[in-house]
Design goal:
Blueprint: H1 2-22, H2 28-52, H3 56-59, H4 62-82, H5 88-97, H6 103-115, H7 117-143, H8 157-165, H9 168-182, H10 188-199, H11 201-211, H12 215-220, H13 222-246, H14 252-261, H15 268-275, H16 280-305
Helix pairs in contact: 1-6, 1-11, 1-16, 2-7, 2-9, 2-10, 2-11, 4-5, 4-7, 4-13, 5-7, 5-16, 6-7, 6-11, 6-14, 7-8, 7-9, 13-14, 13-16, 15-16
């Protein structure tokens, strides 16, 4: 019952988003506004507030970040190699879908439900750092199949790198780290306003994920989505767990990162596929399939971690 109480609220809100979309209460344009609100305003404010109020020594563990980077590269490379005979537009999409976690839209709500609000601050630095890592790695795997040229529009790597540098989630975490490191306090009134805005991030993110589910797209790409979901929800968090355990981590320091790793493929991977000549239909199916499958796998991971 404890595990169900952690997981079910999250997926009930995702279900609410899906129902609102089916009832046309939330339109495609309306959901785009929700997503932008979370991505550009609410989530960055949440990460600033969380990181600023957390002791960096307890939240910035280079071992955890190192494990995530190594595992992400290994899984992306292995998946790319396995998909090498696929069309160029699909190879990078497979590699991206197998490792890119939805840490903000699903992971942070899961961590908060499992461990409380303080845990969000403790993992906010990791989330911000992995936003940058995932973007860089996605650029590599999505560009690699087209490196020899050929038909299709030009890939603007300079523009992509600039967007990484000004990513609002990464900037939010960086700002919080600077405030924490320098000891600069946030004025009470401003902090109260930030709390109100940040509190909207997680529920709006979940509604947005649900409103974006398109089961028709999943049916058209079921085999590829199922395979990638198994890698993303099973192999990827398992390797993160093994790496962290090998380094001697335990308790929340082990459990929270593994839960973040066990989240479905990030929604933004669909946007990246669109921008970089990837198969957007396959990318969308991966997001939907892994999101649906993450309900039972999240329960399983919580049980295995002893939460």
């Amino acid at each position: 019952m404890t595990v169900l109480n952690i997981v079910l609220p999250i997926f009930l809100v995702i279900g609410l988003g899906y129902a609102l979309r089916r009832l046309r209460f939330v339109t495609t344009a309306g959901n785009a506004v929700l997503t932008r609100m979370v991505f550009y305003v609410a989530a960055p404010v949440l990460l600033v507030r969380g990181a600023a109020g957390t002791d960096l020594r307890s939240s910035l563990d280079p071992r955890v970040l190192g494990v995530f980077i190594v595992v992400s590269v290994l899984v992306a490379a292995a998946t790319y190699a396995l998909a090498f005979r696929s069309r160029a537009s699909r190879r990078g999409v497979f590699a991206q879908g197998a490792h890119r976690s939805n840490m903000v839209f699903v992971g942070l709500p899961l961590v908060m439900n499992a461990f409380g609000k303080e845990a969000v601050g403790q993992v906010s630095v990791l989330v911000g750092a992995m936003v940058v890592v995932y973007n860089v790695l996605s650029i590599v795997v999505l560009t690699l199949p087209h490196h020899s040229g050929g038909p299709g529009r030009h890939v603007d790597l300079t523009g992509m790198l600039k967007r990484i540098a000004v990513n609002p989630l990464a900037l939010g975490s960086a700002t919080g780290i600077i405030l924490s490191a320098t000891g600069i306090g946030i004025p009470h009134a401003l902090g109260g306003a930030m709390d109100l805005v940040g509190a909207t991030a997680l529920p709006l993110a979940l509604v947005s994920v649900g409103a974006g589910l398109d089961l028709g797209r999943l049916r058209r790409e079921l085999p590829g989505a199922a395979t990638t979901s198994a890698l993303k929800l099973g192999l990827y968090p398992a390797l993160v767990y093994v790496g962290l355990r090998a380094l001697g981590l335990e308790g929340i320091a082990l459990q929270a990162p593994v839960l973040l790793a066990a989240t479905p493929t990030a929604v933004v991977s669909y946007v990246m596929a669109q921008e970089m000549q990837g198969d957007e239909q396959l990318a969308g199916a991966m997001v939907i399939g892994s999101t649906l499958l993450s309900l039972p796998t999240s329960i399983l991971w919580l049980l295995l971690l002893g939460v």
